[in-house]
Amino acid sequence: MATEIRVPTLGESVSEATIAQWFKKPGDKITVDEPIVELETDKVTVEVPAPASGTLESIVVNEGDTVEVGALLGQIAEGAGAAAAPASASKAEAAPAPGNGASASAVIDVVTPSAGESVTEAEVGEWMVKEGDTVKADDTLVELETDKAAQEIPSPSAGTVVKIFKKTGDTVQPGDVLAQIDTSGAGAPAAAAPAESAPAAPAPAAAAGGTAMPPAPSAAKMMAENNLSSGQVAGSGKRGQVLKGDVIAAVASGASAAASAPAPAQVARGPIAAEDEMREERVRMTKLRQTIARRLKDAQNAAAMLTTYNEVDMGPVMELRKQYKDLFEKKHGVKLGFMGFFTKAVCHALKEIPAVNAEIDGTDIIYKNFCHVGVAVGTDKGLVVPVVRDADQMSIAEIEKEIGNLGRKARDGKLGMADMTGGTFTISNGGVYGSLMSSPILNAPQSGILGMHKIQDRPMAVNGQVVIRPMMYLALSYDHRIVDGKEAVTFLVRVKESLEDPQRLVLDL
Questions:
Q1: CB of 422 within 8 A of CB of 389?
Q2: Euclidean distance between the first and the last CA atom of the chain, given in angstroms as a whole number
Q3: By CB distance 3.0 to 4.6 Å, which of 2, 93, 409, 464 could disulfide with 104?
């Protein structure tokens, strides 16, 4: 009996992840709850535990592949961990290789794995074997190519390749049989004859331009259609192979236009362009950065985003902090910062303006009767937003402790999905990096995000006198579909009032 390993739920706003690394390989013994694979999302890295003890029977997605929630990652053979052959025997019986002379129970299918819900088909690339070849378990049989990545398909067991059903260039779907392997050791002689005429083994057309791997078939076709040479397309596949997605990106960036430009213009610009290109460095975006980029752009496209600004005199908070910081740290064991004041001020304002704490779901508005405040934290891997839950029910000291704990977990890469999901509002502090003013992008599906900035001394008119005050610009980006301008401005004014008169926080005013 086999147990499936699937992508777990990653939170309300996270629908896909990238395979960061496998800790086990097919054939390895594993125990229940032992980490077996690591997934990386745009927010956090998650280790997926083994759902049962046994032997890792198969892996259907490779490192670097993008998968969606619920997608099949692999299978575990429980108990003694039978090899993959018995598990696939029933399939092989339905489509035995004709005349192979091997018993049906010894022939197993090599099938097209699932590449995630958003990928419904792939193209057969280069076959590494031909009919009659002897293979070992985990030997690469063939490469499958999608518009996102190239995936090597390993042999599920040692044996002889008795039949190849799909040729290079064929389009296949998850579950399609690619080949059959005889694990009894008797299939080689019978398969030797048809192997000579098997059309499935030829390598893709040349014209690889000297690269380590020739372009994938679909990529080569698109390159020819768009008059592109291999030197004009950066390959992102294994060993630098050019994939269909690489050609699409090159065409979108205007490479084809450059290739077909008039000769005089090329002669005039060629030396300069070549010289500049030698000083450039092309680095492919990580899957994490690609996901962050897509989600931020989706937020801009989906919401009617608008930003309103104000400024706050930070003098009162700074004086209060200076007066009590030593006593505060001695009693609570944590330093008194600005985030506790800002989080508390935001919670007060959210209670008065509930639309900023709501979200849109289809044609409904969901009002949140609680304040789960996300606090953006910069890490080496990118920006993450851990959530302070029920911040409205916490004291400033409790908020500071929780923010400190979440910040340490973020920097150490130990944040879990429970730390990252469920936020109703976000605070982003660009001031720690020196930002004077910015317009933050919404953290969908939330309807509001507050941007803090650098505290800077500026001349201000106070009671008819020009005085120097420590001022900070505040920015509230909000979804205008649900939050009116009056509500947004009022919200920001309430935050300003609470910070300029901290006693209001104590008295709940």
A1: yes
A2: 63
A3: 93
Q: Are residues 192 and 212 in the same domain?
A: no
Q: What are φ and ψ of residue 346, in 5° steps?
A: -65, -45
484 catalytic residue (yes or no): yes
My answer on whether 365 and 227 are in the same domain is no
CA atoms within 13 A on the CB side of 97: 32
Classify residue 134: in a domain, yes or no. yes
- Residues 139, 170, 176, 480: which is the catalytic one? 480
pLDDT tens digits for 278-314? 788 887 776 556 767 887 888 888 889 999 999 999 9
Domain that holds residue 233: 204-260
Q: Are 505 and 341 in contact (CB under 8 A)?
A: yes
Beta strands in 323-464 (DSSP E): 358-361, 364-367, 373-375, 377-379, 382-384, 387-388, 425-429, 448-452, 456-462
CA distance 174 to 159: 23
Is residue 103 located within the same domain as residue 154? yes
pLDDT in tens, 309-346: 999 999 999 999 999 989 999 999 988 989 999 999 99
User: Looking at the domain assignment, is residue 408 inside a domain?
Assistant: yes
Q: What angle do CA 439, 444, 449 make, to 5 degrees?
A: 35
Is residue 431 within 8 Å of 472, Cβ to Cβ? yes
Task: Tokens for 285, please give them.
Answer: 């975006």
From residue 148, alpha-carbon distances to 51, 65, 116, 137, 336 in Å are 29, 8, 11, 26, 47
Indicate whether 433 and 373 sit together in one domain: yes
Query: Is 463 inside any structural domain?
Result: yes
Q: DSSP letter for 422, please.
A: -
**Cα separation of 328 and 395, whole Å?**
12
pTM > 0.85: yes or no: no
CATH number of the domain enclosing 431? 3.30.559.10
Say whether both 320 and 216 belong to one domain.
no
Q: Do 356 and 241 share a domain, yes or no?
A: no
| Catalytic residue (choose from 246, 484, 501, 508) | 484
On whether residue 279 sits in a domain, the answer given is no
Query: What are 178-212's pLDDT values in tens digits?
Result: 999 988 864 444 443 343 444 444 444 443 344 45
Which amino acid belongs to residue 453? H
Question: Considering its fold, how many domains does the chain have in total?
Answer: 3
Same domain, 235 and 100: no
The verdict on 186 and 227 lying in the same domain is: no
Token pair, residue 165, equals 């059903």
Closest by Cα among 54, 180, 166 to 105: 180
Here the CATH number for the domain that contains residue 191 is 2.40.50.100
